[in-house]
Amino acid sequence: MRHEPATDGTTAQLSLAVSIVILAVLLSLTVFLTLNPSLTGGVEKARVSMDVSLDDGWTTADGTPVRLDSLSGLPEFSTVGVTISRTLPSSIEPGAELNYITKNVEVHQYYGNEEVYACGSPDGHENAYATRFNFTPLSSANAGNTMKLSIRAINASNASQILNMRISATSTYIQRYVRTHAITFSMSVAIIFGGLAILLLSTVLRSVRETELDLVSLSTLAILVGTWSAMQTLIPQLVTGLYAVAHALEYLTLLFAPYPGICFAISLADPPEPQRYKHIALAALTGAVSYTIATVTFAHGDMHDALIATHLFLAFGICLIAIMIAHALRSRSESLRESFSNVSRTVLASFFLLASGTAADLLAFIATAHGSTDPAFYSRLGLLVFTCVMGSDAVRTSITLVKKANQAEMIERLAYTDSLTGIGNHTAWQRVLSEVTQTLADGVIEDAMVCQFDLNFLKRVNDTLGHAAGDTYLRLAAEVLNRSFGTEGTCFRTGGDEFSAMIVGSELEERLQRCIALFETSISEQETTEMPVSIALGWATVSEVDGHTLSAAQLLADERMYENKRLMKAERLN
């Protein structure tokens, strides 16, 4: 049997709120890029045509060549630091600047012996392991001079790089970077949109009790990984300049992402004792978060120092999913096969693609000594495919379920509707009597009024004008009652020429008088027609009868209705 995943309304609302905030930020960035075409190359070329790469030609003081994309092997680089230098081009155009990206590097930049720029200094929040953009001053007076970089690793245990160093107009440099990474950034935003769409669709699925898959966890996973992936492109950092905030958001999203992934995998595989796996995953998440807080708060470390906890939790999640599936195969193999048979093969294939991509990224990150240029490539691709598949599957399922719900609603409506007059039938009236009786007993409503009606002259109309005219006469009577008593209550046709209405709540007498006034107006309007409607009526409230029961009120209303019918007959005879 399928278990019901923990997707209560509070969790869904929280996920929706977080996703809306993240989407608002990323959409703002997208709008910013759209309104500033200079960032994407949508304007005429900059006046500075110079565009020279300085990635090569660097040496240490003893003449040893240096590769800027692999600095960790330099002697003393991770401790006291090292100075590297190279000669600038013999000609520099006015307006050109030196632009480059640093990763895990503290930099002091010199022209000759004059320091002109520094980043990643030990003071304040600048000493944070983060990839950042550097736009440094340069003038034609520096042409042909020696430029020196005094560099040191911020975090000794991780790879350090200086990337894409160029002399060019800063706008040209930014344009090139944004264009190069625009597709990846768009994929990240698409993943977040997919997560939000799945979250909204899950509301539809829960409304019809279809909760086999924990779509809230899936949407949360997509939003977290999509945000992390967007931070990896560096476009948010480039546009906002908030390196420390982006750095923290990058690690926090990666830290929390495995937990919703595990929860979704549990709902997908439906193993024995699913809650035990959730508790284990939650305990592991608590440990990883506690270690991160302790490292940042008490050890005064950077969040990158606590990355080991994130990697262990991610590896733990992959192992836990494998153990969970193995456990299910061993103890409930038939149930597992049945569970998988209820899930689209495309969904299963895309999920394992996502898991494989995550594992591949993790292994690549470790194998390259934390020097991977895009540690989210396979995870991003796998998650994009998976969210697209799940989104389309959820759309297809929700459309099917909505159709079924509409069909069920139509069938129920037909079962409780009088086919001739369009108001409630006898079955609906009995249902209302039962529901009102229960709500009165529970104290949900204060009082209830039963109104009974009997249509006069129906037999005469049938005998003289035919049954078609009799049907019209019944429809006219139902219209009169709906226009009057239907404004305060609900009307029903309970027999051939018998009607009833129920009014519940407070101030019943005042509401009754409004109904009677409308009733008399409607009757008077019918008197000038070829088929004037005549209806006897009676009413009674629960509070005025012995025992305060609805059945007693109904009997009293019947008595008063028949008394009204006798008076109407007497008036006609007179």
What does this protein look like?
With 574 residues, the protein is of the alpha+beta class. It folds into three domains: 9-36 and 174-406, no CATH class; 51-168, Sandwich (Jelly Rolls); 426-573, Reverse transcriptase/Diguanylate cyclase domain (Alpha-Beta Plaits, 2-Layer Sandwich). Helices cover 56% and strands 15% of the residues. The protein is built from 16 helices and 14 strands. It has helices at residues 9-35, 170-207, 215-232, 235-240, 243-256, 258-269, 274-297, 307-331, 333-341, 345-367, 377-415, 426-442, 458-465, 467-484, 508-526, 550-573; strands at residues 51-53, 58-60, 65-66, 82-87, 97-103, 105-111, 114-119, 131-136, 146-153, 161-168, 447-455, 490-493, 498-505, 535-541. It has a six-stranded antiparallel sheet with strand order 3-2-4-9-6-7, with no helix packed on it. Helix 3 (215-232) packs antiparallel against helix 6, helix 13 (458-465) runs antiparallel to helix 14 and helix 14 packs antiparallel against helix 15 (508-526). The longest helix is centred in the C-terminal third of the chain and has 39 residues, at 377-415. The radius of gyration is 38 Å and the shape is elongated.
Low-confidence stretches: 1-12, 40-46, 123-127
Indicate the mean pLDDT. 78
In sequence order, what are the helices and strands, one letter per element?
HEEEEEEEEEEHHHHHHHHHHHEHHEEHEH
| Helix/sheet category | alpha+beta
End-to-end distance, in Å? Answer: 74 Å
Estimated helix fraction: 55-70%
Note the main sheet. Answer: 6 strands, antiparallel
Classify the beta-strand content into a percent band.
Answer: 5-15%
State Rg. 38 Å
Instruction: Please state how the strands of the largest beta sheet are arranged side by side.
Output: 3-2-4-9-6-7
Number of domains: 3
Number of helices: 16
Spatial shape? elongated
Q: How many E strands?
A: 14
